[in-house]
Batch of 4 targets.
Target 1
Amino acid sequence: MIQPSVETRGLTRRFGALTAVQDLTIRIEKGEVFGLLGPNGSGKTTTIRMLCGLLEPSAGSATVAGIDVTVAPEQIRQRIGYMSQKFGLYEDLTVSENLNFYAGIYELKGDARRRRVAAVVSFVGVGNRLRQLAAELSGGWKQRLALGCALLHEPTVLFLDEPTAGVDPAARRSFWRAIHDLAAQGTTVLVTTHYMDEAERCQRLAMMSGGRLIALGTPAEVAAAVGGRTLEDAFIILQERDER
Amino acid sequence: MMPHLGPMVRKEFIQMRRDRLTLGIMVGLPVVQLLLFGYAIQTDVRNLPTVVLDQSRTPESRDIVAAFQNTGNFRIVAHVNDRPALDRAIDRGEAQAGIVIPYDFPRRLARGTTARIQVIVDAADPLASQAAIGAAAGVAEVRNLALLTRAAGRSVVPLEARVRPRYNPGLRSPNYIVPGLVGVILTITMVLITAMAIVRERERGTLEQLIVTPVTKTELMLGKIMPYVGVGLVQMTAVLLLGRFVFAVPLAGDVLLLYAIALVFVVASLSFGLFISTLVRTQQQAMQVAFFFVLPNILLSGFMFPRQAMPLFFQWIGLALPLTHFLKVLRGILLKGVGLEALWPQVAVLLGFAVVMIVASVRRFHKTLD
Ligand SMILES: Nc1ncnc2c1ncn2[C@@H]1O[C@H](COP(=O)(O)OP(=O)(O)OP(=O)(O)O)[C@@H](O)[C@H]1O
Ligand SMILES: [Mg+2]
């Protein structure tokens, strides 16, 4: 039996009276590009944070790469890569210093480290900016750097929280090419997005609203389930339902 | 062991180098504080305006007036002819001290009976009056010795006077203030730096990215402390050198021992700051808590006010502050030249404090966002 890469059962997170994620049950297979979709505040970030061990679930359970995130969060660290929604690298370090810092943190040493950093640099295409401070990078370059830092240790599961927010269309296209390359190599990718064209490029989607799972399946299945002809329609229907 | 510590420390060093403001504070603060405390807050009083009523008008009396002036504490501003005139001068604030030498002063000296001079001090300013009294006693004693030598063989004990300060014979306040200042400056900067350390990463969003990696809590904490130990020791060196060459503060004892104990104190202060960092959510809160901690350090540690004079309750609070113990070390080594055999209790307290704070910080910190 093939183990799922990510599996949640009744995953729930409350902040005081607010339930940010309610009873979420999903299963993501190895090598899948899985999209998490939903209006602002629907619980996407909270879900990813629980899967990375950054937030403790209030109820339910989740496994990542076969490891229970609440039981052994430290054991999943080496296996996951995470790009937070807000740029989380050091703005006062250069591109190369950020990469080398994270390479060190992932215990890459000597020649292996140089080779791996060079490979990542060429993969995300930041070769011309190595000496630039991260603070001086534009949005798109920051996101490439963040992806690079999340890939250094060759994680088996990659969590990308709105990786293309504020990125121009050309850069978004190359970003998604990178995502599919990684998936082709066997990396599982869980990605959130507000761009419908990006959602269409996911193999499967989970549509969330108000912390609940509304629909699950291929882009077409999800659109149909919500009652729209396209994903875009479905999304707007959800948003309007939220506002009421 | 601790494979992630090296990268953490290296990263902190790079950030430290780029953070001009913090760097400026770390270098500027000691210098400004030293000059401020060293010059502005002179607790020893020099040039106290003084009137003289010399009723005997003899070479001996002029001699004694000169001796008073030579202490540097008294500056003769006027000679008066009677007691009411002297009192008036002090009442009006034209003078803060008066010296009265009676008619019989030379005669009594010659006869070998106790010769009296009266020193009147305006005690409205306790600091000034204390200094004047101290200096007067000093004059009397020096005169004593001189007279005794001259009168060798005769069994006479003329002037009365006691109080001879040890370790700091000039009663110079820089000797007292500068070593203390080393401790105060280290407390302020070290606590503040690490108090901001973790909340800053939290506020900037870099903590979220960092704690999904295999770095451990202990490595994270030590990584925040270690780079600044060097900074603390450099600061101490700067203050000591300035104190030595600008204020002529002596360096009596074992400097190596001082640095060894300072290392412990710096780690204790840094780890306390780190503990603050685990208690608060924003940099502003961290700053407030840090200042809230610094104030009792300045007031209750014995830096400015003697602890023996405080109510018992405040003495106990003082005992809980690392600075209190480090001040004993600083003054002990710098002024008295004492060694570890006298200072080990202080070292033990500082070590204990550092260990407790690091452990408490590691336990309080969680690799989550709640
Ligand atoms: N630490 C927190 N404390 C309190 N409430 C929180 C916290 N984090 C998130 N929330 C709330 O939980 C809900 C879900 O937030 P979450 O960030 O998961 O949404 P999202 O789907 O990622 O939204 P967006 O598209 O805007 O990023 C929101 O109502 C948010 O205000
Ligand atoms: Mg979000």
Note: The pocket of adenosine-5'-triphosphate (ligand 1) is lined by residues A 15, 18, 20, 38, 40-46, 85 (CB under 6 Å).
Target 2
Amino acid sequence: MKFYVCIKQVPDIDAPIQIKNGNLIQDTDRTVLNAYDASAVEEALVLTEKHGGEVEVVLIGPNQAKETIRKALAMGAHKATHIETREESYDSSVYASILASFFEDKDYDVISCGKQSQDTDAGLTGSMLAEHLDLPYSTNAVALSAQNGQLRVKRQGDAGQELIALPLPCLVSCSNDMNEPRIPSLKGIMQSKRKPMETIALDALEIDESALEAKTAVTGYREKPKREAGQKFEGEPEETARQVARLLDEEANVV
Amino acid sequence: MSTLLTHIAISDGKIKRSSLEVLSHLRRQAEQHGHQVEAVIIDAEASRYTGQVQQYGPSKIYTVENPVFKNHLNAPLLKALEKVIEQADPSLVAFASTESTKDILGALAAREEAAVLSDVSTFELTEEGIRATRPVMAAKILSENEARGDMILVSVRSGSYDLEEQASDAEVIEIDFSVDDQDLRATLEEIISSSGDTIDLSEAETIVAAGRGAKDEKGQQLISELADVLNAGVGASRALTEAGVMDPSLQIGQTGKVVSPQLYIAVGISGAIQHVAGMASSKVIVAINKDPDAPIFDIADYGIVGDLYDVLPPFIDELKKIAS
Ligand SMILES: Cc1cc2nc3c(=O)[nH]c(=O)nc-3n(C[C@H](O)[C@H](O)[C@H](O)COP(=O)(O)OP(=O)(O)OC[C@H]3O[C@@H](n4cnc5c(N)ncnc54)[C@H](O)[C@@H]3O)c2cc1C
């Protein structure tokens, strides 16, 4: 099976963030492989280890994102393509257009990606790309298996889960509930340095100017109004528990 | 004057309250800006719901009725939306942000070449499109966004707006719709329903959420007793859904559901930012945790420091007394 996994470098949300003049400033330039994409890489590796095949990762981003590609290669991906961009603020539809143009002349069984980016939580690019490429797709997958030339997806829906069989080629977006991504081994890290990584300049893809124009823009950031910590009760559980129960009734009026 | 279209989501034979929240908001926006608001219901029994939707004041209701919509499948849903959009020619289509919406929103935007903003917490119409607020960075930060274009799609978090009725005698327009196997593109083989009689967490007034601290059988027993007394929905942290202790549909947080109940009781949950991302807009938060430094206490209105096995029995007992 040939897997392409679309991956993204995202700021580490655990690192301290500040807002200055409406811009997000991170004191560190700590970046990570998007957790949802890491699950997509992991699952592609598991399926190709079982059924044979190849995993190639594709990343759109500036030069410094190579670090993230190397992480995926160290996990075990066989090769990588880096679509190098200047640092511009693209929205999901621009990312999807770039990827669509990249995949135009490619052969594959499955394109996978994370269900959303950890930083923006937009969750749009996957199904946009499927639409551009006219592929059957599923989102929010929590388990994958391959059988009889199909990809079988367990999708987390609103209430229950759905088992969906997709004909190949197809696209699937993955939840981090799918697996626990492996930590690269020392050997994996060594090997990753010798794995093929092709860099394509964005211009080389000859994408229509209009497809590179974002239809949405972030105009600013602000702190979320902080919730104040309320009353904290330490002491005899028998007493504090009853006291809080009564406050929920008499003070907060929520029971 | 242009048309603002609201998608009405149906789940378990009921209209999702969050869709009516969106419709209420859109109607107010339409009034302010001189537009008209319309609604679309896509369901196996779509016509059953038109009466209730009329209570919220759209000027037209489109129905697309077909047995294929008994279960969610993205390809026929997209085909139906495309047909309705062709007919209604809206400048804006608004959705409640459900898993079904998340499944199709990007694809629909690509198909319609529309600008799209997902999972917003508020939005307003502007001259060129919309302005919207979205929580980002695991909901630690709010981003301000603009979307422009001839057509804009937006999905809205549940609990963002209040319901407001304003009855109309909206015209009901049935859209002719058929599907063949080719349209399906994928085969839905099985539905694994979530266990137990679950209360829809996105609509629940009260939620009792269990974390790793309440992992064992006794903890689970206490959680369900507490939920029973309060007539609450049960939710969980990822620690418990991951361990298979709780149904995966019950996960609350960045990966799971976003909820905004009146009362949220977090039991044995540390308060990791990815969990908090899903529950921080609850009106009243109660935390029960034996670690006085657990981050959940930073956002709790009432924090009880103690072992949940000691705290819950008297807590439940007192709530029972209050209820009777
Ligand atoms: C991309 C990403 C997405 C994520 N999405 C989600 C999500 O949607 N939802 C989510 O919940 N998590 C999510 N997580 C995971 C999250 O980071 C935490 O790991 C998880 O929320 C921890 O669950 P917990 O609080 O139950 O467990 P822990 O962090 O282990 O906390 C257990 C708590 O229970 C307390 N405790 C233990 N025993 C007792 C007792 N007897 N009495 C009282 N207190 C006790 C402890 O003091 C501790 O505070 C995500 C992580 C990532 C990276």
Note: Chain B has a mean pLDDT of 96.
Target 3
Amino acid sequence: MNAHQFDVIVVGAGGAGLMAGLYASRTAKTAVISKLYPTRSHTGAAQGGISAALGNLEEDRIEWHTYDSIKGSDYLGDQDAIQFMCEEAPQAILELEHMGLPFDRTPEGRISQRFFGGHTNNETGKPVRRACHAADRTGHMILQTLYQQCLKNKVNFFDEYQAIDLLIENGRAVGVVAIELATGELHTFHAKAVIFATGGHGRIFEVTSNAYAYTGDGAAMLLRKGLPLEDMEFFQFHPTGIYKLGILITEGVRGDGGVLINGKGERFMPKYAPTVKDLASRDVVSRAIYTEIREGRGINGSNYVYLDVRPETVNRIAELDGRTNPDGSKYTVTGEQILQKLPDIIDFCRVYLGVDPVTQMMPIQPTAHYTMGGIPTNKYGEVVIDDKQTPFPGLYAAGECACVSVHGGNRLGTNSLLDLVVFGKHAGLRAAEYANGVEFESLPKQPEAAARSQFDALRHATGKENVYDISTEMKKIMFDLVGIYRTEKDMLVAIEKVRELKQRYANVKVTDTGKIFNTELINAWELGNMLELAEVIAVSALNRKESRGGHSREDYPNRDDKEWMKHTLVVKQADELKISYKPVTVTKYQPKVRVY
Amino acid sequence: MQVTLKIFRFNPEVDKKWHYETYTLDAPETDRILDLLEKVKGHVDGTLSFRRSCAHGVCGSDALRINGRNQLACKTLVRDTGAKITVEPLLGLKVIKDLIVDMKPFFDNYKTVLPYFINDSPLPADGKERLQTIEQRARFDETTKCVLCAACTTSCPSFWGSETYLGPAAFVTAHRFIFDSRDEAASERLHILSETNGVARCHTVYNCTMACPREIQITKAIGEIKLAMITGKLD
Ligand SMILES: Cc1cc2nc3c(=O)[nH]c(=O)nc-3n(C[C@H](O)[C@H](O)[C@H](O)COP(=O)(O)OP(=O)(O)OC[C@H]3O[C@@H](n4cnc5c(N)ncnc54)[C@H](O)[C@@H]3O)c2cc1C
Ligand code: SF4
Ligand code: FES
């Protein structure tokens, strides 16, 4: 009954989905469907900035951005794609500005830029100002601006529609089935091209900066259809989450001069990254914090450390490090300036911790933050399904759910927002171009059957298992056993436990039998997605016998370029996970030891 | 500590009329009201329905009436409310189920004020950014913070009186563009805001400003819009 037809369907209305929708709709009949109202998407939570070698405050080069990202990825990123992204970056940022995005400004009236971890001047090795920002709500401004431009350009939206199945016919993606949350009705969206932009899956972990909506729906839907997922073992733990809550404290705090302090009152990062110190790559800083904690130097011997951005500390450290302003004068800050640069961070600390960062230190611990792996694509956003990069006709992906791979083993801060804008746009353009060159393929017979039976099974399950209990256990297992440090022993336990949870999940009880906003049913379905992906993550991580980027094996502490300069691909066949590999694209940057 | 949580309940598929349910829970003072709702949903009554996503006050999903005041459930702590907590849906919008209201009238109003950047003049010749001074950028900083949570609009007596009153959130968005030195459609927006559903129906009750979880000085922004209408000046 509820049948719709569009040339292009975009699933997801975050930065990537909106960018794709905006571009696809220029030439093709396009609709964007989203389980959240678009402005609720997680892109709105991004704080610190979006990178581009604009060089507005000091010399910067696209080449340096490219090299920093490759190094940051621990040489697992595909160098052609990274170069493409960094080359597109300046124009992408300017385009956002032309759409009205209110970036902060330099005294000359240009887009202001700040320091961020891993972004350097390749000649001096010192940090470089590359992150374009709008206070500490850059993502919010990107999300609002793109949504507004979509309204202006009359893009079609289906808000609070959740995609639950991808439709495939004759080897082509032909649409999706979605549930309208307000009515519980199923809808079939018939399309020539489908773009997934569903975001990440950090909710698999106990302590996370990620929204409730980060349940990996897109990746899980494709896995169920027999399509591969790439590099799922690579998950980023951000060094500075608010203790226990996981809420993110942007790296911009350290960019603006904040430092990490252990239980002995020492600034410990110089020990681990002598040159850029507190502004090393995220994997490096997270491991440093864990090492401090494990060696008993957490605050009061506990499992957290402090982040200190009090002006007196910032000024003392800036003096010690010889830090200067762009004009060469001494770098100093006042409490007032901290408040101006980081208003939201200060608000979070006051509300959730009762701590005022201008006068007190913030208790922090690493928090599960970003999905580097995901749906394999090439640099045009086409989903590719094997080691030869063969595209799957009609299927596209962009944003955090995709793996291009531009982030490889570890994403640099500010490169994700850039990824959304660049690859969202290209996925939109490509999908529209493809759609305009082909006829509609027919839909499978009874397109809703698979989705309906999956949901009916959940709805009528008679078991006793509680969704929240299973979910809580999964999160703890994944955070403790497949987290920052990993060993074979732990991961074998994790895999066994996740599989047990999957069995229990088959007997889950949904008490709400209604149709209207049955959020209990939706939560149960999302848990199923997370369990699928948790298993893929753990199996991929166990398989990779080396340490690289965000994947740190205590039993294999070194990077092994001979064996492991390759991407992991996992497919699900007859309920078994099968692993294969794909080479990393290397253009001119040979792997080197990574020091910061 | 022990808290009693009284929640507005309405399931249109079962209930003829809404009612309240009371739950007693153990919760630390640092729990968010959202955490309490999750606990009830997880372990007491799975049918309880509400919207949420970010859980830290930036997505605008979970504005609710908590102890009679519009607030975000994820930004209000037990420490702030005390042990007796009443949670109800926003006023002035139709309840769909439990704490979920129909946001359509709210977003329709938002869409009325041309909520997008308009500048049809040619780009700078070098293709780079349109220049804006730090002061010009600061002029509208405050109103860029809005997360469209509707706490303001649904606390306003004028909106309770009529859903078509554009309401404070729409004015905040209009302000963000009217005072952006790069935007060229200020006069069109001011015209829209001067019509019957516009700022004239704001009676400076300050409810909106009190309700805003982003601490936007909404009444001040509305005042600036009114002044611009009279003087025709935007500085
Ligand atoms: C707190 C925080 C701070 C960050 N700061 C930065 C930063 O400073 N710089 C940076 O570069 N990156 C940052 N990141 C990372 C970056 O913000 C995200 O990676 C990025 O915004 C993801 O965008 P997206 O478009 O892929 O997904 P999202 O914006 O999350 O959008 C996902 C969309 O998919 C929809 N969706 C999901 N599942 C379904 C389904 N089944 N059916 C229909 N719709 C669905 C959702 O409704 C949503 O609209 C930060 C991340 C966090 C969490
Ligand atoms: S102005 Fe404040 S209260 Fe009103 S919608 Fe925006 S954020 Fe919410
Ligand atoms: S859940 Fe996002 S604002 Fe509360």
Note: The CA atoms of residues 323 and 329 of chain A lie 9 Å apart.
Target 4
Amino acid sequence: MNGMKHIIMSAVVACFAQTAVAERADGDAERGENVYKKCSSCHKVGDGARNRVGPQLNLLFQRPAGSIEGYKYSNSMLRAGADGLVWDYTSLDTYLENPKSLISKTRMNFRGLKDADDRADVMAYLRQFSDNPANIPEASPTFVGTDHSVDPEILALQGDPEYGEYLSSECVSCHQIDGADTGIPSITNWPTEDFVVAMHAYKDEKRIHPVMQMMAGRLSAEEIAGLAAYFEKVGE
Amino acid sequence: MKLNRRNFIGSAAAVSATLSAPMVMAGSHGKPKVVVIGGGAGGATVARYLAKDSKGAIDVTLVEPTRNYYTCFFSNLYIGGFREFSSIGHTYGKLAAEYGINVIHDWAIGVDRDAKTVTLAGGGTLPYDRLVLSPGIDFKEGAVPGWDVSAQQKMPHAYKAGSQTQLLKAQLEAMPQGGTFAMVAPPNPFRCPPGPYERVSMVAHHLKTNNPTGKILVLDPKPKFSKQALFQEGWTNHYDGMIDWVGPDFGGDKVEVRPDAMEVVIDGEVTKVDVCNVIPAMKAGKIAEIAGVTNEAGWAPVHAATMATKADENIHVLGDSSAQGDMPKSGFAANSQAKVAAMAIRGALTGSKVFPAKFTNTCWSLIDTDDGIKVGASYEATDEKIAKTDGFISKTGEDAALRKATYEESVGWYDGITSDMFG
Ligand SMILES: Cc1cc2nc3c(=O)[nH]c(=O)nc-3n(C[C@H](O)[C@H](O)[C@H](O)COP(=O)(O)OP(=O)(O)OC[C@H]3O[C@@H](n4cnc5c(N)ncnc54)[C@H](O)[C@@H]3O)c2cc1C
């Protein structure tokens, strides 16, 4: 019970921290330049910046995800963009905290910035390379929520793969059981944690997609755990 | 392959006898037997899940006359030039070889509910413990004055996929410049509610590039139709002025056709057309009626939790033929219902665990290149019917990237559902 309370408490704190970030007109851009060193091996920003391992990050704010011409994004990033994800304070904060919680199959192999100040500062730094930095609109209305982290008690649930197998029959009309990903992403052989986080992001409507929000919306945490356990091992 | 066999159960006998040698039933090991009639979206899925999940504990026989099943889903995309014909054809090889299903290419022509046997056109008899019917649809006689199945070479329905679909596409391609393509749309309820309107879009797509002065005339007995706002927005955006939709206010419900003269008569007024796609009113596949499980409206009422018919607990009806409640008649729905039925049948015959029934449906439609839309819902079983619990629909004014992603999803779904049906 104590643990539970702690989680709720820290969630509340996280929410306040979040608002604080959003309201702080600019984090510390100078400190941010230093944080940006963690990104610069993959991303260029500034005059004449070109795509490297990652896309160039000029004019990032209000840019739709996955929209730099000529850069080869992961399908997941392209889909997120098509579904309406736009980079702003809120979405960047989530992505930079834990890239795979927002876009589970993103090619950005970066652990994330756990420290909220680091994130605010690096965003302040990047904002200097956006148009009209003083006047950035509010978060896009389609993007709900800020934090995709799932209650540790949910993550700790041991799923029953047999139950998962039964439930999976609903999924495999769209997601191919052999792992092929033509048009619809593959969901086989994922680490269970990523799977659970992705499903709860749809369930809580933090990730935008009408089909998946509907599918996940009626699954209980136990059912999601069962599916994760089943799909992790399928075909092995 | 002559498709009109599909519509004449009676005359099928002669043809089928040459198609498949009389089947010797696999020796009974006292295993429970399930016979499935119809190897489409519902039938192929239920057979595969029964065989797969019972791991040999149930003897599964699938009766389907055609060796190549052409999906109605994506058949409109073939008409529009987005798919090859061969890409919508599927065979039963894996179901037989990998899942041990006894696949019999023949017509079922009789059901003896007391003896629990099915009679085949080729002369065989199949005993069953449970019978599953998923025979799709047949057309109501006299639904469109002037049309019956003998006219389907002149005025195709193309609402069972295969040679009818090829014929309609050939007629469209042969249409004179500036000619008229007419469609007589069906009344509710019918297979694939957005199907006729996706077809109109695909015909328009073909005309736009090949016959830009061509016209489309849609004669509709219904005052409104599925995804109407989305289709009409798309038609204005992509095919402005090409499509004339005539609802019941303007005689869309008073249509007669004259196949020999290639004329349609709308509320007494005669119009000459170049192609005429007649999609008549529908009812359950004939074998459901022969089995005596249909109601006055021509569909088979079922219990939602098991898909067993209200008339006979040992007979289940899936897909288009069933009267189940809120689900549309779609391939997705038939596939979803099949999994619920397979679980219930397995539970009854082998004592395996039965979980609460859940159903889903999503229907995608293509309006023009990379302009896809969708509508979907989830459902649960109540005592009374399959009841809708939640749903969504694409919105008008969506941007091009989302519409493209939606189309790409439908391509993924096609691969997913066909491998879920055929292995
Ligand atoms: C133009 C068009 C577009 C469509 N698009 C979509 C779509 O995008 N998405 C979607 O989900 N659905 C779509 N549908 C609907 C979908 O095709 C049907 O709802 C689905 O096929 C129904 O499955 P079923 O098992 O009831 O029947 P079917 O799939 O039609 O299968 C019936 C089978 O039974 C066999 N049969 C019939 N009588 C007998 C008998 N006496 N003995 C033995 N075998 C018999 C037939 O040969 C046939 O193979 C579309 C339909 C059309 C016409």
Note: The first strand of chain B starts at residue 33 and ends at 37.
